[in-house]
Write a structure and sequence with these properties.
alpha+beta
C-alpha cells in the first residue's frame, strides 16, 4: 500500500474500501467520541454507507493530495487512527482543515503533534496551501494544547452545532485555531 506521508514513527496512507472495520472500531470507543458525539458511537452502517464512500471520493476530488489518511505505527504497523487535511466542501483548496482522531492506545505518545507537524509541512511546502485551520470544543484542552504546540493561534470562537448540544461542555461552544504559511515559516 502506497504511503502518503511518513514521520519518524508514523506512516499515513489513503483509506481503502476494505478499511471500514478500522473506522468502526475507532468510532465505537466512547472516550474517542467524547467531544464529537457525547460518547455515542457512529453507527457501523453510516461508516460503511456514508463516511467511507465520502473519504474515498475526496481522494478523487483532490487528486489524492488532500483528505482523510489512515495512520499506522511504522514499528509493528498498528492502526492508531486518522489525520485530516482537506478544504471545506466548497472552500478554496489553499485553505484547509487539519484534524485527527486517535485510538486511546495512541494517546499521550506525541503522535497527534508529530503527524500534524508533518501535514503542516506538506501543506505549506508541497501543496500550495496558504492557511491551515483546526477546530475543537472549547473544553477539549488536549486538542487545544496540540494546536498551540503547532504554532496555531486562536482565531475565534464557534457556536455549538445543534447535533453536538449533548456533548460535554457544549454550552461553552468551540474554538478555531489557524496558522498561515508565513507564520509557519517563521517558526
Amino acid at each position: 500500500m502506497e504511503t502518503y506521508l511518513e514521520t519518524e514513527r508514523l506512516a499515513l496512507r489513503h483509506f481503502t474500501a476494505d478499511d471500514a472495520d478500522l473506522l468502526i472500531e475507532l468510532d465505537s470507543d466512547p472516550a474517542v467520541m467524547r467531544y464529537l458525539s457525547g460518547s455515542i458511537p457512529t453507527a457501523p452502517e453510516l461508516i460503511r454507507e456514508r463516511d467511507l464512500p465520502n473519504i474515498l471520493a475526496g481522494y478523487e476530488k483532490w487528486d489524492g493530495d488532500l483528505g482523510l489518511f489512515a495512520a499506522h505505527e511504522k514499528d509493528g504497523g498498528a492502526f492508531i487512527g486518522w489525520f485530516l487535511l482537506r478544504p471545506e466542501p466548497a472552500g478554496p483548496r489553499d485553505e484547509v482543515e487539519l484534524g485527527y482522531r486517535l485510538r486511546q492506545a495512541a494517546w499521550g505518545k506525541g503522535y497527534a503533534t508529530e503527524g500534524s507537524r508533518a501535514l503542516l509541512a506538506k501543506a505549506f511546502m508541497e501543496l500550495g496551501v496558504h492557511t491551515v485551520w483546526a477546530a475543537t470544543m472549547s473544553v477539549n484542552h488536549g486538542s487545544r494544547n496540540i494546536m498551540e504546540k503547532l504554532g496555531m493561534t486562536l482565531a475565534g470562537t464557534l457556536p455549538t452545532p445543534p447535533d453536538m448540544e449533548r456533548v460535554e461542555g457544549s454550552e461553552f461552544g468551540g474554538v478555531r485555531y489557524e496558522i498561515a504559511k508565513e507564520q509557519w515559516e517563521q517558526q
